[in-house]
């Protein structure tokens, strides 16, 4: 049975302190009548305005797929069918965005090196779907702590996995911007995609690496746990990243999920640090809040 869910969403992108152009793009939406919302963040690359074009193509193409999702047919389906339809829309949006970027590259030689990361979260009732390509990230925060929902497709992540680099060293590594998967590079791109069931009120945060360059998971958790109103965390985090140097473009999207009539995301003064990558509360059962 689906739980009563209300959703609110906000986002911001910023050029930072060094770059001459903002190659990030972000979009978000909350349905006025249905418990449906999403956030999409893309971090472009390629110079000559190519990165900005690639990220813009990504968010526009994916948003178009999502805009066609909530139909009478969808609403009449079972929760399991709806989950599969959302996953199909996510994969279709990413696939179409990838091909559109490749087509744009073919039309203009100046864009031959462009591409983009993408990370997205879609909430329908108590279902959360997360997908990503590249090193832009999604996080889930509740009163139980912070969970990083995505694992970077990057050279430094592979080095961390191999034990040759720590997460702290990765943030200053010379190859920290080298990603191993992106839109616009090959005709076939496979996103990492997972669906969860939301069982308690939470914050979902999506961001480009212009933010995570400066914050580890414990620092992100502290801001999400203590800063209110919750949706204004996106402004606070971007301002903090700029004060720390702002070497890259910075984008943050926030989706606030309130589950049940009497539950809300309340501030906490002290919570345990959440590092780690585990996306489940029980092994092999991707649910939150049990």
TrEMBL record:
Q: Which domain of life is it from?
A: Bacteria
State the coiled-coil residue ranges.
none
Q: Where is this region: Disordered?
A: 268-290
What CDD domains does the entry give? Answer: PP2Cc
User: Which InterPro entries does this chain map to?
Assistant: PP2C (IPR015655), PPM-type-like_dom_sf (IPR036457), PPM-type_phosphatase-like_dom (IPR001932)
Cross-referenced SMART domains? PP2C_SIG, PP2Cc
Transmembrane feature ranges:
none
Gene Ontology molecular functions: protein serine/threonine phosphatase activity
Name any one Pfam family assigned in the record.
PP2C_2
NCBIfam families noted in UniProt: Stp1_PP2C_phos
Task: Please give the PANTHER family that the UniProt record associates with this protein.
Answer: PROTEIN PHOSPHATASE 1L (PTHR13832:SF827), PROTEIN PHOSPHATASE 2C (PTHR13832)
Name of the protein? Protein phosphatase
- The scientific name of the source species is Thalassolituus maritimus
Specify the taxonomic lineage: Bacteria, Pseudomonadati, Pseudomonadota, Gammaproteobacteria, Oceanospirillales
